[in-house]
Fold:
Amino acid sequence: MPPIAPGEPGEPLPPVEPAEPPVPVPPLEPGPPVPPEPLPLAGSAAAGSTGGGSTAAGSAVGGPGEASTDGAVDSAVDAGETQLIAVPEEELRGALEAILLVVDEPVSEIVLAQVVEQPTERVAALLTDIAAWYTRQDRGFELRRVAGGWRLYTRPRFAAYVEKFVTDGQQVRLTQAALETLAVVAYKQPVTRSRISAIRGVNCDGVVRTLLTRGLIEECGSEPDSNAHLYRTTTLFLEKLGLDSVAELPALAPFLPDDVEALADAHG
Structure:
């Protein structure tokens, strides 16, 4: 094989220009966090499967036990706001008894529960327990459920004592002034206050109010000339005296002086 003859020298290569240094790239600034889109609720929170994943197991978003929806959080907050504070039983019992002592008509469990801010079921159960406890203790009063509510009543076997107390309390004697005013009304009815005062010689407004309160006299219209109220005796007055009508009142003439009418007219 013959040797290869060297070729003619070629042109020299141009010098290599140095490369420009790389331009530094500024770091990216973090943008505002993008809130995750709420997942739609399906069924109950326990079942809570959305998009094939189980919310309860935490496999769809986040880890186990992590809240996955805004709705669930709102529900939890609402439940916390309406949660009732438990009251000790003794305090609750005393509160119910105090309320029942001042009511003038049966009050329902719902109203009582709203006042004491406790569940209605707990209040109803405690009221039943209180009623049974009063019966076991043989108290002079009892707690009854009537007309859809609860109220304290005196026990029937003590009715005679209660009746005697009430009856004796109503048998308060009238004052001398009240008896005199009542007699004037009985014999001069219908009569005005000014006429009564003229006959008695003193102001009788207070006594008339007392007789009205006792139910022994009543208003029966007004006088045509002066529009003053007229008064007469009531049915209760006849019952107290055992009379059928005012015509059965005893004659007054034997007990009066001869010039009583003249004296009344002079004062009138």
